[in-house]
Specification:
alpha/beta; 12% strand; elongated
Length: 167
């Protein structure tokens, strides 16, 4: 496993796999290390994972920077997957035992459902050099999301103006 200082990452000189975990998962760690070994990359973790605690407290802008600048992302997070798709960063989402409906829906909508993996052998079988994101699908999904938020806020505002409660 290759880990160097934070300075090389923040200066953009390092090539790395960004591994973001909601909770500690051995499979994410194994896959991130295997990808790093395969391509000669470093591994950067977001979350407290011994002995990588110096990456535990990055904020939202740094989180997005890591996703945008990573050569590869390994995650169990819906939001990390979403931003990987948006930025066009090659990624793998690790399937957990928890329900995956919104993650599965997102990946199907953009034609990347094969990026949701269960184990190391499945992850290593995917051809990373052919990773492509359909920008038109992403844009359409973004427009649907904006419309959904706009309608939701309009509904809340309407209820508030009528003296109603939101909850």
């Amino acid at each position: 496993m290759r880990l160097r200082g934070v300075i090389s990452h923040l200066c953009g000189t390092a090539m790395f796999v960004f591994c973001y975990q909601i909770s500690f998962e051995k499979m994410s760690l194994k896959i991130a290390n295997a990808i790093a070994d395969k391509y000669g990359l470093e591994v950067v973790f977001k979350r407290y994972v011994e002995p990588y605690a110096f990456y535990a407290d990055i904020g939202p802008s740094e989180f997005l920077w890591y996703i945008m600048n990573a050569k590869f992302v390994v995650t169990s997070s819906f939001h990390c997957t979403l931003f990987s798709v948006f930025f066009g960063t090659p990624f793998l989402s690790i399937r957990s035992d928890a329900p995956q409906s919104r993650l599965t829906t997102l990946l199907k909508a953009v034609g990347l459902e094969d990026r949701l993996v269960l184990n190391l052998s499945q992850a290593m079988d995917l051809p990373d050099e052919n990773f492509k994101v359909d920008k038109a699908k992403i844009q359409m999904l973004g427009e649907k999301g904006k419309l959904f938020l706009h309608e939701g806020l309009k509904s809340c505002n309407s209820r508030l103006l009528k003296g109603g409660k939101l909850g």
